[in-house]
Amino acid sequence: MEAMSVELDNQNSEDPGSPPMKNIDIWKDILNSAKFIVAPMVDASELPWRLLCRRHGAQLCYTPMLHSSVFCRDPKYRKEALVSTPEDRPLIVQFCGNDPDILLEAALLAEGHCDAIDINIGCPQAIAKRGHYGAFLQDDWDLLRRIVSTLSGKLKIPLTCKLRVFPEIDKTVRYALMLQNAGASLLTIHGRTREQKGPLTGLASWKHIRAVREAVKIPVFANGNIQCVQDIEHCIQETGVQGVMTAEGNLYNPFIFEGRYPPSWEPAEEYLDLVERHPAPSSYIRGHLFKLFQHTLCLAENQEERAILARNSTMESFRHVVQAVKNRYLPYHEGRLSWRKRNDDDQMESSLDYNLTLPPWLCQPYVRDSPQEHLNKVEAKRMELESNGEDKRKFQDEEGNEVSHKRLKKLRRIARRPNRSLSMKRRSDLCTACPNPLGFKCEYKLCRQCCRNKCFKENLDCPGHRNLTKTRRQMAIEFAAQRDDNKEVI
């Protein structure tokens, strides 16, 4: 493995008593005026993918989001998260969490292996809401102020923040100014609110980003609406930011910064070669290949390759899928065969009728439906089911109003156990050892993973998590003793 092994106790070579960096331009002096930036992506911006992107125009990369508390207590997690190479710079390590002291401890462990530390205050997912981190910290400005000031005052490298906007531009500007005044050296503004996610993602607001850029004195990166290199240049012109970050645009086309739309097997083969040198979990590899072949594997003729990719986890199976797609579409790509695409009436059309539509084997953006289009489709599907007499799952409240699917499930649950107290509600308390929710029936007030670790180290059982470590060890001891007794009898 060519990646540098991480020695976690090997901190920055500077004098430990030296003061934090002050009066530097992080963008020019530390990040080499990076304009093309690969976003931090959970299970996606690992080392092989970062190296692939850097080979094709990326000038700055982030690690995936790391849990600060897990990073502090788990050496294996820490070592795997910080694996890097000399060409993987400049690099920013991103953490999530809500405890200033734990975040500081994690940042101090990582600062010798990167060029800046980023605090994620933009993640909108449900797990971030349960753990009270990411975008769900934006309502607690006092806590954020303590986090940013604590880390910026103790670290030898710059501290940055990645955040989402509020619906109101003026509140977003005040939010950014608060983070700047607390000690942030750079801000990445994702121009969507925390409610804009999934099928309701919609467009990011560059107006919010421009307002922040004009108000603060520190560098700003923009995030949102980036699907091609032209979008990057347009975003810089519209907002005045120093750099532009992309996530989905990069995942579907890692050559985005070169302005190329390569055949999908080209980045796939190069990525798998990098994985051979710097191993990554099979789930990461599978996820990348599904996105690279997004427009190919959805075709009926490639269902076998799609099934192989979904069900297998070996490098041989991954390379088989890549080679199969390449063999099928290379003759079309080289012009030896004439490609035809299907229109809405399932009729073949000439490639001359594309109207700027790229053939499916090329890496290209994934275009989501707008929120209104998504809602229209949902409503059309519902009406179709009703007209066919298939919509039998209707619930109404006491006033005769229809209820949502979520409410429907709750009513069914109540109907099954009508005598159960409504106050018996799943708790949202957090694990005492990490930011994840604790197990509902755990005797030790821990999440599943922390409970498993505790039972393993302290020889305990936890019926709530169905973890019988102590019982099974005792059974093994008794079995071994019985086996020895039988040998003596013989």
From TrEMBL:
Signal peptide span: none
Region (Disordered): 384-403
GO MF terms, alphabetically ordered: flavin adenine dinucleotide binding; tRNA dihydrouridine synthase activity
The protein's required cofactors: FMN
Subcellular localization, as worded in the UniProt entry: Cytoplasm; Nucleus
InterPro entries: Aldolase_TIM, DUS-like_FMN-bd, tRNA_hU_synthase_CS
The entry's keywords: Cytoplasm, Flavoprotein, FMN, NAD, NADP, Nucleus, Oxidoreductase, tRNA processing
DUS-like FMN-binding domain boundaries: 38-302
Major localisation: cytoplasm
Family assignment from sequence similarity: Belongs to the Dus family. Dus1 subfamily.
Protein name: tRNA-dihydrouridine(16/17) synthase [NAD(P)(+)]-like
Originating organism: Cephus cinctus
